């Protein structure tokens, strides 16, 4: 765990915005860490500063990103200030190939950092990058690292990114092929993620392409066709995801929307809920936190969008956190749990924290609030899957090569030649089974945190 303060910095930097297509809110908080190393970007009209470029793009484009720094804030700040413009300058972007433009732009951002100051080659800092490029009818998510993007589909969490961890098989295969090693879940015993912008000490092989380095900035890209059930998108750093599951976050956000809260206020409330009540939690709830919520208006006014989601919640159309969530203010680490089928009664004491449970056949989660309150939510993270046991963790399947570009050769070993094979929309949807289409392509396997 990183160094911590004697008291957390709980002041938050928040903002919001909207146009006739989208509404968003974002908030960031330093928390217990000795400095703030996160950065974020929110751009409703990516082409506003370039009328010529806008002529060649029939749809308005919006850009949102979260960049979780480590080893300092230099790379995160540079990335947050520049990556969207760098992506927009790629030839593939001008040609309308947004998926490839995101990949090109991530690698170009790495190069731009070094071009800005050669001393960065010895800079030990780096950052994750999880960004969303939004058109009228599609979401393009590019991710390098363990920040995460999750779509709320009528209260159910649909992952649009996959965490890059060194211990994942595909990532480990690339790391070792490049001459590195994984020890205690860290690249060369040091870095807790396997893909990042910056971290140039792991990118020094002149013989290897950027996407083949021990640590690479090359992102996975997921493309999703927006549907009527898609309510909002959440992009956040691991300061949120280490404390809450994707499903718990979606339900929390949905409850806030049903209560007509501003999106940035929902972000603030989530961070209060995640913030550890002390710094002795092993790092959970002690990290910097940044969270962005983007709502899809799809021809509705902001008021109509709020009303539609509130109506769905009132009618029980999809899971949602209990009403208490709209009122509670932290701090306190709040755990979400996978349930089992044991049927054992939940033992209401401190030793039960972190355990699965069953209460009178009711399947759900217990959230421990900072004031000692225990809340039973409506659902668990397996709701989105037809087969909860087989498909419980899509990201874990990706890490093992079953959905990623890493395939197995006849001997069962990872085959590097086929890195880059995309997930088909049908294959990913068959796992998620909640509508919409997504495709994922990856040249490498994992990344660090």
UniProtKB/TrEMBL annotation:
SUPFAM superfamilies, from UniProt?
PP2C-like (SSF81606)
**Top EC class per UniProt?**
hydrolase
Q: Which reaction does it catalyse?
A: O-phospho-L-threonyl-[protein] + H2O = L-threonyl-[protein] + phosphate
- UniProt keyword annotation of Hydrolase present: yes
- Region entry Disordered, spans: 329-355, 388-449
The record's listing under InterPro entries reads: PP2C, PP2C_BS, PPM-type-like_dom_sf, PPM-type_phosphatase-like_dom
Q: Which portions of this protein are annotated as coiled-coil regions?
A: none
For bias type Polar residues, the affected ranges are: 396-405
The molecular function terms in GO held by this entry are: metal ion binding; protein serine/threonine phosphatase activity
Give the matching Pfam families: PP2C
The keyword Manganese is annotated on this UniProt entry: yes
Q: What is its EC number?
A: 3.1.3.16
User: Acidic residues: which segments have biased composition?
Assistant: 339-348
Family indicated by similarity: Belongs to the PP2C family.
Q: What is this protein called?
A: Protein phosphatase 2C homolog 2
Species assigned in the record: Cytospora paraplurivora
């Amino acid at each position: 765990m990183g160094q911590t303060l004697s008291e957390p910095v709980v002041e938050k930097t928040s903002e919001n915005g909207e146009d006739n297509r989208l509404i968003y809110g974002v908030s960031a908080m330093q928390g217990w860490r000795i400095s703030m190393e996160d950065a974020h970007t929110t751009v409703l009209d990516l082409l506003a500063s370039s009328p010529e470029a806008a002529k060649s793009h029939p749809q308005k484009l919006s850009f949102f990103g979260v960049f979780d720094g480590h080893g300092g804030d230099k790379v995160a700040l540079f990335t947050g200030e520049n990556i969207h413009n760098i992506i927009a300058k790629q030839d593939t972007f001008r040609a309308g190939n947004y998926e490839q433009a995101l990949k090109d732009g991530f690698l170009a951002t790495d190069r731009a950092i070094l071009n800005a100051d050669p001393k960065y080659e010895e800079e030990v800092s780096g950052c994750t990058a999880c960004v969303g490029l939004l058109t009228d009818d599609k979401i393009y998510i590019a991710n390098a690292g363990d920040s995460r993007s999750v779509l709320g589909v009528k209260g159910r969490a649909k992952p649009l990114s996959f965490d890059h961890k060194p211990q994942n098989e595909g990532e480990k295969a690339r790391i070792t092929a490049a001459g590195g090693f994984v020890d205690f879940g860290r690249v060369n015993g040091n870095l807790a993620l396997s893909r990042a912008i910056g971290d140039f000490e792991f990118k020094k092989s002149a013989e290897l392409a950027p996407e083949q380095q021990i640590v690479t900035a090359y992102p996975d890209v997921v493309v999703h066709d927006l549907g009527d059930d898609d309510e909002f998108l959440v992009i956040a750093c691991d300061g949120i995801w280490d404390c809450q599951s994707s499903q718990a976050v979606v339900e929390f956000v949905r409850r806030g929307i049903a209560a007509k809260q501003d999106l940035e206020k929902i972000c603030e409330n989530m961070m209060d809920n995640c913030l550890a009540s002390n710094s002795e939690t092993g790092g959970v709830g002690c990290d910097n936190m940044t969270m962005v919520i983007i709502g899809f208006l799809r021809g509705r006014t902001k008021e109509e969008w709020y009303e539609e989601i509130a109506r769905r919640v009132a009618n029980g159309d999809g899971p949602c956190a209990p009403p208490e969530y709209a009122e509670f203010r932290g701090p306190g680490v709040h755990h979400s749990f996978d349930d089992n089928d044991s049927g054992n009664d939940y033992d209401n004491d401190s030793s039960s924290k972190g355990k699965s449970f069953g209460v009178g056949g009711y399947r759900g989660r217990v959230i421990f609030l900072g004031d000692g309150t225990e809340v039973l939510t409506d659902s668990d993270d397996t709701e989105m899957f037809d087969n909860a046991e087989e498909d419980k963790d899509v990201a874990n399947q990706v890490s093992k090569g079953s959905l990623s570009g890493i395939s197995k050769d006849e001997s069962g070993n990872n085959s590097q030649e086929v890195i880059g094979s995309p997930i088909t929309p049908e294959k990913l949807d068959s796992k998620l089974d909640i509508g919409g289409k997504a495709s994922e392509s990856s040249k490498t396997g994992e990344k660090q945190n």
